[in-house]
Structure formats: C-alpha cells, structure tokens
Design a protein that fits this description.
The protein is α/β, with parallel strands linked by helices and about 375 residues long. It has helices spanning about 1-30, 60-65, 85-95, 115-125, 145-150, 170-195, 210-215, 225-235, 260-275, 275-280, 290-300, 305-330, 335-355; strands at about 45-50, 75-80, 100-105, 130-135, 155-160, 165-170, 205-210, 240-245, 250-255, 360, 365-370, 375-380. It has 2 domains: about 1-25 and about 275-355, no CATH class; about 30-255, Spore Coat Polysaccharide Biosynthesis Protein SpsA, Chain A, CATH 3.90.550.10. The strands form 3 sheets. A 7-stranded mixed beta sheet has the order 3-2-1-4-7-5-8, sandwiched between helices. β1, α2 and β2 (about 75-80) form a beta-alpha-beta unit. α2 runs parallel beside α3, α6 packs across α13 and α9 (about 260-275) crosses α13.
C-alpha cells in the first residue's frame, strides 16, 4: 500500500506540474491582435532572412516580408549558394516590391558548424540599422510583425524572440508537429519566461545591433552549435533578459511525415542536450507517459480498475492543453488529442536518442552531434 501511495503521489505531482506550466504560459500569452505603429518617429529596422531551398509556403512568406506595416525597414536575404532554387523567387519578389529596400546576398562564411549562422553573417554585417531581426524564411510575418517584437523590448532586455506556432497542418503527422510546437514547446518556453528563465528561440530574434557588436557581434553566437542557445547564454552573462512576444508568430506546416518529424525533433533534442543538459534531463517527465505509467502501477498495486485511472490521467493532461490552444487562437482540430498522444509516445524514445551522438541533417547540411558540445562538427552533406 505504501508503494501505491508513493507512485500515486509522484503521478499526481507530474500532472499538477503539467497543469501549472499551462497556467503560467497562459498568463504570458495573449490572443493575437493588431498592434498599431507607435506614435512619433519609429526606429529603422533591418530584417535578415537566411534562406535555403523552396518550401510549399515560400511564395507567401516572401510576400508577407515585403508587406510589413513599418515605415522604415530593409530586407536582407541571405543564400549560401547561387544555384539554390530559392534565389529566383527572391529576385522576383524584390522586383515586384520596388518600394521596399531589399537585397540578396550570396555566399557562405564558415565561422561555425551551424549552417544557418554561417548564412546570416553577411546579412548582419551588411545591415544598415541599429535594430536587426534575424528571421527564418518560413516565418509567416503578420503586418505588425515589427510592432510585436518592439513591444516586448524593455529596459533590461537583451533579446526579443518568438517561438513558432504551427498552423495549416495537412494530414495527421502535421497535426503531431503542431502538438510538439504549440502546446508543448511553446507552452514550456512561455512558462519558463514566467519563472524568469526566458531562453531564446531562433525563428525570430530582435537584436540591438550596437549592443551585440560590443560583445563580439553575431560571430559570438558561434560559441554554441545552436545560435539561440549561444544567444541565451550571452544575454544572461550581460545580466539582461530574453523576452518573448506576447503573441508568437505562425509557421505554416503543410504536409509532414513521421520521418521528417522524427528527424527534426530528434535533432532539436540533441541540440538541447549538448547546450543545456541540466534542463534537458527532466524533459522525460514533460509528457503523459511517465505519470500514466506511475498511475497505472499505483492502481494495480491498490487493486483499482485500470481503464478509469488511465482516462482520468489522460484527461487531466490533454484537456488543459486543448483549452490553451483554443484560448490563444492556435490550431485545434478533432484530431488534436490523438496527435498529442502520438507526440507523447514519441517523447521517451526521442529523449533517449538525445543522449546519443550521431549524424543529423540540418536543411541539407549533414552534421555530427557528439555526446559533448566539444565534439560537434560539420561534415559535407549528402542531402
């Protein structure tokens, strides 16, 4: 009986911590509304967009970047290789929107094993303005994109960023990716911010260029394999904070497969493990699998029926997640709970894989992630 009490208590604690993280995230998040431009003179902004390859929503994300409601901004597109098919689309977009200052820079500065950072170097150094946004090419920028980033800047801020919110999924596995991005990863990131543990996400990052240049510039982000991890540590060393936008930006997903989700999420798991191992270690407890197993063991030890216990634990986990998505206007479908269950079944294997080294593909760049950060190195891609 004592064993059943201990396991039941542990399960309850995990269920309550899950609910607490949702409440904390909800306290930081707002449903998307339009932010008007600030009165008076607005600072000029440079938006650096590293690009590679053509994706289903590339045309739309390009057009959104040229349609921002900000009086003074420039777009700097960075592509590593001139034969990349996205070059043609970028040049066509620049031609269609002649009133928006925009440039395409081609070349690769090998300062790190991070191909995205290498691609951004030339854009950062070419930026004309003191405020610079590093924005992934698959971010669906709203018209008030810059306003949301600027609104999150405070006097003690060193960096403002936004986690991606998955939208427009096609098929079940894209729903699973929404479950990863939205009510799991975004939720825990905003819960961390509520606890004073804000950390960067590389999808959209607003920097004060003079501040970063005074502390090593963009090349300082090569200190870690992931530029957002290096950014978090740099900002923390300066005694400043990483702030998140109140309403994060969309990333349209389209169709996904189990293989693409596993590859991407396993890569991110290994990157988190080598950059923040103490935070990665308890990730095994964030899904429903561990508390469910503990609850079932406790129920079996105490002689209770197992199905009602399983239903109660799953309801306690997933109904608050659904409520969070609904309250913030994120994607929510009848398959959401099934997608969350599939996600949580993947988490233990993904967590275990995170502790192992091996090759990963990073948008066509093959990389070796070892068991320690010092063992990371880039290798020629076979993609």
């Amino acid at each position: 009986m004592e064993f059943a009490l201990v396991t039941a208590s542990l399960s309850t604690a995990l269920v309550l911590s899950n609910a607490a993280s949702i409440l904390l995230a909800a306290s930081q998040l707002k449903r998307r509304t339009t932010i008007e431009r600030p009165a008076g003179k607005s600072p000029a902004v440079s938006i650096v967009i590293p690009s590679r390859g053509v994706e289903p929503f590339t045309q739309e994300t390009l057009e959104r970047a040229f349609s921002l409601d900000w009086p003074r901004y420039e777009l700097i597109f960075c592509v590593a290789h001139g034969d990349d098919p996205v070059v043609r689309l970028i040049r066509a977009a620049i031609g269609r929107f002649p009133k928006v200052p925009a440039r395409l820079l081609i070349g690769d500065d090998r300062v790190s094993a991070n191909p995205k950072l290498n691609n951004c170097i030339k854009g950062w150094e070419a930026a004309r303005h003191n405020w610079v946004v590093l924005a992934d090419s698959n971010v669906l920028m709203p018209g008030d994109y810059v306003q949301h980033l600027m609104a999150a800047w405070r006097t003690d801020t060193g960096l403002v960023c936004s986690t991606p919110i998955g939208s427009r999924p096609e098929g079940f596995w894209a729903e699973v990716e929404c479950a990863f991005l939205n009510t799991l990863q975004a939720r825990w990131q905003y819960a961390g911010e509520a606890l004073g543990l804000g950390f960067a996400q590389g999808k959209s990052m607003l920097w004060n260029k003079p501040m970063l240049d005074a502390n090593g510039g963009i090349r300082a982000l090569a200190a870690e394999i992931a530029e957002d991890a290096a950014a978090t540590k740099l900002v923390n060393r300066l005694g400043l904070r990483v702030n998140l936008v109140a309403a994060p930006f969309e990333q349209p997903l389209g169709r996904r497969t189990l293989g693409t989700i596993w590859s991407r999420q396993a890569r991110w798991a290994r990157l988190r493990r080598v950059t923040f191992p103490r935070f990665f270690a308890p990730e095994i407890l964030t899904g429903a699998v561990v508390p469910l197993m503990l609850a079932l063991v406790a129920a079996a030890s105490a002689g209770f029926s197992l199905p009602p216990v399983a239903i109660a634990v799953l309801a306690a986990f997933y109904l608050p997640e659904c409520a969070l998505a609904w309250s913030k206007g994120w994607h929510l479908s009848p398959r959401a709970v099934a997608a969350m269950i599939a996600r949580d079944l993947m988490l233990p294997a993904m967590w275990a894989r995170g502790w192992l080294g091996g090759a990963v593909d990073w948008r066509g760049n093959a990389m070796i992630i070892g068991t320690k950060a010092a063992e990371l190195e880039e290798t020629p891609s076979r993609a």
